[in-house]
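Hey all, quick one. A colleague (J.T.) asked me to put the 2-acetamido-2-deoxy-beta-D-glucopyranose job into the tracker so the inputs and the structure tokens live in one place instead of scattered across chat threads. No bug as far as I know, just bookkeeping. Sequence used:
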Amino acid sequence: MQNLARVVYVLLLSAVLTDGVGHSRNSTKYLADEIQYLASLKVRLTGSPTHNASQLEGLSFPVFTDELPFTYYKGPLSEPSIILNNGTNLPVASFSTYSGFTGSAGVSGRLVDITTSTPEEVPDWEQARDAIALTNITNVPIDAADVFRVWPGSPEWSTGAGTPDISAEGLVRNLTLAADVGVKAVIYAWQNAATGLVDGQYAPFHNLYQGVPTLFVQGSNGMLEDLQAAAANGSHAAVTLEAELQRHQSARTIWTVIEGTDLKNESVILNTHTDGVNIIEENGHIALLAYARELAEHPPRRTTILLFVGQHMHFVAFAQPPQRATSRWLNTHPELWAGRGQRRAPQYGGQLKAVAGSCVEHLGAVHWAEDISSDDWYSTNQTEPELLYASTAPLNALLRRHWRDADPNVTRVTDPVDSVPVQGGEGYPFFLADIPNVSLVRNPSYLLKIWPAAFDEVQLVDLAAVKSQIESFKRVWRAIDEMSAEDIGEQRKDGLHRELHT
Ligand SMILES: *[C@@H]1O[C@H](CO)[C@@H](O)[C@H](O)[C@H]1NC(C)=O
Ligand SMILES: *[C@@H]1O[C@H](CO)[C@@H](O)[C@H](O)[C@H]1NC(C)=O
Ligand SMILES: *[C@@H]1O[C@H](CO)[C@@H](O)[C@H](O)[C@H]1NC(C)=O
Ligand SMILES: *[C@@H]1O[C@H](CO)[C@@H](O)[C@H](O)[C@H]1NC(C)=O
Ligand SMILES: *[C@@H]1O[C@H](CO)[C@@H](O)[C@H](O)[C@H]1NC(C)=O
Ligand SMILES: *[C@@H]1O[C@H](CO)[C@@H](O)[C@H](O)[C@H]1NC(C)=O
Ligand SMILES: *[C@@H]1O[C@H](CO)[C@@H](O)[C@H](O)[C@H]1NC(C)=O
Ligand SMILES: *[C@@H]1O[C@H](CO)[C@@H](O)[C@H](O)[C@H]1NC(C)=O
Ligand SMILES: *[C@@H]1O[C@H](CO)[C@@H](O)[C@H](O)[C@H]1NC(C)=O
Ligand SMILES: *[C@@H]1O[C@H](CO)[C@@H](O)[C@H](O)[C@H]1NC(C)=O
């Protein structure tokens, strides 16, 4: 476990030291350099510097900035720990960010077993008043074929059941309820997951500060039963999660507006987020910057906005759920997408109307798999399957023509309107604003994992896949630029997705 806050300061320093236009005409070298650069940054939490204004300025594009204030959870300031009163120091897998914190001395109390039998059941926090709560979550492998609908013409999902990256997102309960009744700390035993996968998971990441320090431990291989036995015989535990809240921090979103040569009052919004905990989450800016260089030489017909939001890893502080960080920007800048009648942005007539959006996230992820029986978690050396979305039939047709995956024989386009899960990432805000879109999200199981300092994250990136995805995006974006708004179509206002989620 590393000191995240310190990492953020190192980043701020590196931004000051490394600012420069520096781009190469050799795209392979450029990609490799960007990947190397990201690997050197490691954790980039919300509030860390935003990629990469200097490259946009170097292309003579105007750079606009929103500095958004928020309260930053700075921690852990020391190694989180759980010590039982029989002297055992339990291995801590991870901490729950913004859950709560202790001082350096930690908190202690009786260990109370409030494990639940189903994920829906709310732990009986009351039982653990003034004590340390022991509860549990269990990873449930999901078969993509069961939850994602593909457009006609796409092969069905055939990847089999795999571990979703964000199990803890939906499984960890609302900890405010625990804080309200005076639980001193919460220990989550995480079951059915390899230790390597659980270690360092930065999850759930969608909560505001809740007021009760919470740690994860491995719960498989008899560990949960062991802790339950300890609770049953009246054991005590001391829990330390040293952190502090820092008010008046800020997180930056940057964007550029490249005026169209022809359709000046229509816009296309291409976005990504810039904060993340590893090299895959997030690297989408590389595609946007590659396209920016192309647009500098060949301007678009339609006004094109490249948007780099810097609040994804803590979006709840910036927009009311289910909105996300991009929603904050959409809410603040209706003049850039909402159409005629907007009072602002007089330089564009106050009437830009977005006809399409496109979100790029998690390029080129290498797939890792787990073998729970042997507690093994390992790189398969294969590319993570692409989760490629198109929200209208014409955009699906466009992808079928222009998209080449890392595996050139498989272009699988998913229809978010009829899929069960809400689309992850910063694409969802376009849906809420009815902007048709094409987007890519890959969800490797380690998406939210903070890797050990000595781990070289470059090995998580399939450079050839990054390259083919960026080339595909550039073809698709050019093709969208050639289409009329009518031809792009409107996304459906019905469908499973809307029934379930709005
Ligand atoms: C911007 O990107 C270049 C690589 O293209 C890198 O050298 C530079 O450090 C980056 N700057 C920031 C502030 O991220
Ligand atoms: C581009 O860069 C790659 C990686 O550094 C190198 O292997 C390749 O030879 C370069 N190509 C050209 C045309 O310079
Ligand atoms: C907690 O652990 C028990 C025993 O392994 C299991 O039956 C139960 O499903 C778990 N609860 C959750 C929410 O994962
Ligand atoms: C969590 O519970 C508290 C009540 O203690 C409530 O105010 C809050 O809205 C809940 N948060 C979420 C995300 O449901
Ligand atoms: C202390 O209790 C834990 C949890 O039951 C157990 O795993 C460990 O072996 C015990 N250590 C000693 C020294 O008894
Ligand atoms: C109580 O549990 C602790 C932790 O598992 C263990 O070390 C200790 O021996 C147990 N004591 C009794 C009396 O069972
Ligand atoms: C854009 O401008 C054209 C010509 O000035 C006009 O016909 C069209 O209605 C405008 N579109 C929007 C969305 O305002
Ligand atoms: C992946 O590649 C590495 C390095 O070549 C190798 O050691 C490892 O066995 C490979 N893993 C699998 C699952 O093939
Ligand atoms: C794609 O399909 C062609 C023709 O069936 C085959 O020769 C090629 O090996 C396949 N490529 C991959 C990466 O599977
Ligand atoms: C695209 O629209 C779909 C619904 O049509 C939505 O689920 C998704 O989040 C949107 N994605 C992007 C990138 O805008």
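Adding what we noticed when we looked at it: The first helix runs from residue 4 to 18. Residues 1-24 have pLDDT under 50 and may be disordered.
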